[in-house]
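Suppose a colleague, Dr. K., hands you the sequence of a protein chain of 623 amino acids and asks what its three-dimensional shape might be. Before reaching for any lab equipment, you can write down a predicted structure in token form. Begin with the sequence itself:
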Amino acid sequence: MEEEITSEFKKMQFSFRKEEEGEVLKKCLTFCINYQLSPSDLASSWEAYYLNRLLGESVIGNAQMDGFLLHLQNEQKEAIIIEEPHSHIYSSNDVDMILSDEHEETKEDILGTPSDRSGRHISELFDSAQQTKGNSSSYGKPSDHVTPFGKRTSKFVVQLTVNNLPSAENEKNENKLENLDDDVIRRVQPGRRCSLVVNGSRPEAGCRFVYDRIKDRFDALENRIRKHTAALVATGLYEEPTDPTVALPKSVFATGMICCDGEGHLNEKSILLQSSVQHSGGQRVRLDLSKLNQFSIFPGQVVGIEGCNPSGHCLIASKILDSIPVSAPTDRDLPPAKKQAQDEEFQLADSSHNLAELSMMVAAGPFTTTDNLLFEPLTELLAYARRKMPQLLILLGPFIDSEHPEIRKGMLDRSFDEIFHLEILRRLQDHVEYMGSAARVILVPSIRDAHHDFVFPQPAFSILPLDLRHQIRSLTNPGMFDANEVKVGCCTVDVIKQLSGEMISRNPKDGSSRDRMTAIINHILSQRSYYPLYPPAEGIPLDLSLAPEALEVSTIPDVLILPSDLASFVKVLSFGGRNEREEQVKCICVNPGRLAKGEGGGHFVELNFHESPDKSSISVIRI
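The predicted structure, expressed as tokens, is then:
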């Protein structure tokens, strides 16, 4: 039968690499037996795969067999769907759900953002979605009331829109492709390639971690207090802080970090203020906030306090300053020579692009469901991206989720690195090859990634030996970059959820309070830290000996991406502008949610930035 396979491939002008011919033929024979294909059917399938991947040579090697296997599996699945349009490949979880008669799909609320709930449906289902499906992993917690991903009926529904402004470039590209139906032959028209400058690269890959000492943590916290103190004094509105632990009947100004006097959660009776070594030797004093009309605090927050300490045992606050003035943008994360080199590398060829204009799509893992090993959500997201053609696709971990049921059971027959390279990087490589040189993809790791370092801050992925390293880049976690002069910051640790669980607040009696999500985002940016909470939440491998500066938000970004298990939201917030000397800065904060939730689909975000956050269009879309 191997001779027949060779003959059929030769008829279609394909040949096998001589040194690998025996091994390739054995695999082809296995494919014929497993999928009940004749040699001619196998050769026809290879021809379709060859055209789909746009392979440059007709010589078949062993390295292409894994991708061809995925293609055959896709064909088998599509054949089942065509024969029985309403069929579904059931798992044990599906059977349990049917027996329990639980078919309802969960309705999710979008928190306090201007919204368009008309349920607009993007009716176009892409031919390319089926052509790139393959085996993959699934993550997230199972939910008994979520419609399985393959059975959902509402796809790509816009759940929330802010500033619904159409993207002229995307509309033009869509019109070009509107009448082209053959997705195998079709080539995407090249678009404008965005510039890209990554700010900061620490911690570096391969660094040693979990070696931090008590001194490292103390020094990092002390530096935070000193920097906030210096920023407040530099405004000229406040004098040099005094020791808050000394008894003084008159009102004084002090700075320090909010702490809890016990192991449990913070409450109004357990608030302590830890001042700096310079001003109080690092001692703590009880903090009384009973005279304040409103406040919002959490452990680890650095604040300024105006108040008095008549007894020397308790500082009675009359005013609390929970933010530092907005500073001018800086490029201190990169040495000037390196930043200039990157600017030249990425911008000279793209000098025609309009500054401060950027189209992007943002999605956060898990990228597959809990009931199978098919990366269906990721596959459909890439198909959607092929139609919309954003300049930048930002994918945030986890990619190989350590909380996925099959990973936790240890039932996989491949290593985590193999799954990541085969199921994630190969799909992304196919995507950028199809889209052309204008496409860019950014990956941000997560501490939930089973194949990566379990430490925070976290080094970037090592994606080599990928040939398309200028199109597929990895950032540290947290990380910041500039694309077309749009500054974007991101962090995959669920700091929103963790701050929400630790923050205590008092609202003014007139009811003019901010919603909780807005207050949390304000805290993150006002504290100039991607993770201002201390002590860290349970399960966060915080290592302050690696690169404490990596946690700093050196300047307020135009777009801040903070994926969370909480409901997706978009906020456009303003900072500064409280006096004539302080500039006002606006920021778009985005929680894209999770692309996969249990056995069902989740959300992602489509964002078109135009000059400023006020003129930008953002949509939260249910996949």
